[in-house]
Automatic annotation (TrEMBL), chain B:
Residues 293-325 are annotated as: Disordered. Signal peptide: none annotated. The keyword Phosphoprotein does not apply. This is Os01g0598900 protein. ATP binds at G33, A34, S35, D39, V65, G143, D148. It comes from Oryza sativa subsp. japonica (Rice).
Length: 464, 325
């Protein structure tokens, strides 16, 4: 989400050319200059879809579209993603994660429009149809770590509120949660622990990734406490492309497919990504065309691998606008995990009958979810990580060793402080929602060990 | 770490890589792909040393490809000829002129600087195999280092080349083919190779190819160097990711076959080299470059670059020849 918010228009978005010549390059440069001047992707040619004479907008793939068709194109992708992956059922309440950036702003707008349309259908059918899904909005307030003046932050958050309340049919609720609340319900204690934990992380990239983990934890907490069935993120193709490369660079090739699918049910509350096929440039442009208000003053400056990857991809995009889609498509060909689809019994009962066979086929193929997930980031463990975990379990002396072994190699390297004392202190600061799970496993583990020891003692007695 | 200890650690790491991956067996005849550059020169030197020290019992040869680039390849081949004498390894040189009837100088005259790397990469790969067959060797080793492999992982993600992505981290490729290729430097950093060559005062040629003067500075290579500065282990992390990628079983992979004209391995009816050569000989050098209309199915195994618009290709061009797996 942060990556998506940080994206910006990068000049001309012409589709790829099969060949180039000097004159074509000159025309291209002129078009690029003109596009840069108006600050948007635009070319003066007819809409490729309806033939209208309005100023056309170029989308990846080279097709020029007028404003209306461009918008319909993006909305169509959103709706297709939602329906063909059964992301939202009529009985669901959906929590939309809103950061203030263009991508989540578009997601907010589109899910709102889908809901309005569903309500109209429901009204017309005299309540005989299925109920309409609910929508709530969540904003994670990370201002405690922000170096900007307090009043500026307050104004920005007020903007966030007004954007949400400005939607014609009110959303169910607006939830603004402070990031430190995942540490403790007491404000000062939570803040202290958050600051202390973040300060212990020496690696810039590690700090960023740690905050990303906390953000997801915060969203999960909001959703669980308020009865939401789904969490919808505004992650777009551009942000996902950045994530694909970042994860590759961090050695997370095994787990990366988990993060790039439409559906992710490894969390308590399933997470869905309906904007996965849309580019940040397109979403930013749509916000401009539709005068959708965004709020990006809360974005934090970024150092480290994630921002290096983002600038690399930005550079590639300038040369070939389809590059981001290519990266996402490559990742799509990697094997997803069993939790990358809905598999609970009866989940697809609400689907129109023509769609049900597709999902039922998957249901019958379903295997048990057996992945071990990283304590912090939720990444599935690779074989070498599993081996490390198994060997640690056998010889673990302290709880700290189990905690450490339940972190993936990437988190171990870039987040955990070096040194055992520091490590112990770091884990003592972490949210109970994370370490509590470990404590439960640890307790059952030691219980099992006690039983084994009793058995050995009995065996010994018999021997005597 | 002092110089002597660096030598020991460097050589032992490569030895461990060779042993753990069972790259060779006693009696193997091994051709070292030798370009005269630092990677292949260090590889020839280290392999020769380890062969003596650890008694691999290998017959080692130097195998060079002469692309026919005036002012560049002829000078680098002089370096390899000196290596032949210094290391006592027999040298075989095979040229594009002999194999294809065209030198790179001729090819560049025909098509210009753009795209000439496609020809060179495809031709060199096949030339290396043909030279190895002439020497009757069991294995080919190349000097691809960790930086090269990490770069290839990234490039294959950027290009959407899932077939290559699934195998570009293999330390041995072509095991089911006539002559497997090995990369003993898979886990060795480029800067360590440079340092080793420098301290050992090894004789190597370091000028970049004159027909792709900016190839070394491709976006991907630049990105990897930035990464390495920020987090040195990123290169090995990329390789580890590449090793851990699991390709979805629903993804269709190209089928292996042979070229009906020259018998070389290919997933198409004609291998890429024959397609390119046919274009050259018919005065249509652009044939086989860029988007191919009417050709269905996966890429040819010989194809160096994915079919992409010309404009985007230059930025993704890696170091000369080294992205060709």
């Amino acid at each position: 989400m942060a990556a998506a918010a940080a994206s910006s228009c990068g000049g001309a978005g012409c589709g790829p050319h099969c060949s180039s010549s000097a004159s074509a390059a000159a025309v291209e440069d002129a078009a690029a200059a003109a596009a840069e001047k108006v600050g948007r992707l635009s070319l003066s040619r007819e809409c490729g879809k309806c033939g209208g004479g309005a100023a056309a907008v170029a989308v990846a793939g080279g097709l020029g579209l007028c404003g209306e068709c461009f918008r319909a194109n993006l909305l169509g992708k959103f709706k297709l993603a939602v329906t063909s992956n059964a992301m939202v059922r009529p009985t669901d309440s959906v929590l939309l994660a809103f950061s203030g950036g263009p991508a989540s702003r578009v997601a907010l707008q589109f899910i709102h429009e889908m809901r309005c349309k569903a309500i109209e259908s429901w009204d017309v059918s005299n309540s005989q149809a299925l109920p309409v899904f609910g929508v709530g909005v969540a904003f994670v307030d990370e201002s405690v770590l922000c170096s900007k003046p307090r009043d500026e932050i307050e104004m920005a958050i007020e903007d966030i509120r007004s954007i949400v309340s400005s939607l014609s049919t009110g959303v169910k609720a607006m939830h603004i949660a402070r990031l430190e609340d995942v540490f403790s319900t007491e404000s000062e204690d939570g803040e202290r622990r958050l600051r202390e934990a973040v300060d212990m992380i020496g690696d810039d990239t590690g700090r960023e990734d740690f905050l990303r983990c906390l953000r997801m934890l915060s969203l999960q907490k909001i959703a669980m406490e308020n009865g939401y069935a789904k969490i919808m993120l505004g992650s777009c193709a551009s942000a996902i492309a950045c994530h694909v490369l970042s994860a590759t660079v961090k050695g997370q090739g095994y787990s990366l497919p988990a993060d790039v699918q439409y559906v992710d049910t490894r969390w308590e509350i399933p997470v869905v990504l309906p904007l996965r096929d849309c580019l940040a440039q397109e979403l930013t442009l749509l916000c401009e065309l539709d005068s959708l208000k965004t709020q990006q003053h809360l974005d934090r400056p970024s150092n480290g691998i994630n921002s290096l990857v983002a600038s690399f991809i930005k550079r590639l995009r300038e040369e070939n606008p389809s590059r981001e889609h290519t990266i996402v498509r490559t990742a799509q060909k990697l094997k997803p995990f069993s939790f990358n689809k809905f598999s609970a019994d009866g989940y697809h009962d609400f689907l129109p009958s023509r769609l049900r066979p597709k999902f039922q086929k998957f249901d019958s193929d379903e295997s048990t979810f057996s992945e071990i997930l990283c304590l912090m980031c939720g990444s599935p463990f690779s074989e070498s990580e599993l081996q490390n975990l198994e060997s640690t379990k056998h010889k673990a002396q302290k709880k700290i060793d189990l905690y450490t072994a339940h972190c993936c190699q990437s988190c171990y390297f870039q987040i955990l402080p070096a040194g055992e004392n520091l490590n112990e202190h770091f884990f003592s600061l972490l949210p109970k929602l994370w370490t509590g799970k470990m404590d439960t496993i640890s307790d059952s583990h030691s219980l099992l060990r006690d039983q084994i020891e009793e058995y050995l003692l009995e065996e010994n007695d018999d021997g005597n | 770490i002092c110089r002597e200890c660096f030598y020991i650690v460097f050589e032992d790491e490569i030895h461990q890589t060779i042993v753990e991956n069972n790259l060779f067996k006693p009696g193997d005849r091994v051709a070292i792909g030798a370009s005269g550059g630092k990677d292949s020169t260090v590889l020839a030197y280290v392999l020769s040393e380890l062969n003596h020290r650890h008694k691999y019992c290998l017959d080692l040869f130097l195998l060079s490809v002469d692309e026919g680039i005036t002012g560049y390849r002829d000078d680098s081949l002089e370096t390899v000829k000196r290596n032949e004498i210094q290391y006592g390894l027999p040298l075989k040189i095979i040229s594009y002129k002999d194999l294809y009837g065209w030198t790179m100088d001729d090819i560049v005259k025909a098509i210009g600087l753009k795209n000439n790397c496609t020809f060179c990469g495809v031709f060199r790969r096949q030339a290396l195999d043909r030279g190895a067959a002439l020497l009757k060797v069991d294995k080919i080793v190349t000097g691809h280092n960790a930086d090269d492999i990490a770069e290839t992982v990234l490039l294959n993600i950027l290009r959407g080349d899932i077939a290559r992505l699934s195998r570009c981290t293999f330390i041995t490729t072509g095991e089911d083919g006539p002559i497997p290729r090995c990369k003993p430097f898979k886990y060795t950093y480029e800067k360590e190779i440079v340092m080793y060559a420098y301290f050992k005062k090894l004789d190597y040629f370091s000028t970049e190819c004159i027909y792709s003067p900016n190839a070394y500075r491709g976006f991907a290579r630049e990105f990897i160097k930035d990464l390495e500065r920020m987090r040195p282990r990123a290169i090995l992390d990329i390789i580890k990711s590449g090793e851990n990628f699991r390709i979805s079983t629903t993804t269709r992979m190209p089928e292996q076959g042979t070229c009906e004209r020259c018998g070389y391995i290919s997933s198409q009816k004609l291998c890429k080299a024959c397609v390119l050569l046919d274009g050259l000989n018919r005065g249509l050098p652009k044939l086989g470059i860029g988007r191919t209309k009417g050709v269905a199915g996966g890429d040819s195994d010989c194809e160096q670059q994915a079919k992409r618009p010309e404009r985007s290709r230059s930025s993704l061009q890696g170091k000369h020849g080294n992205v060709d797996f």
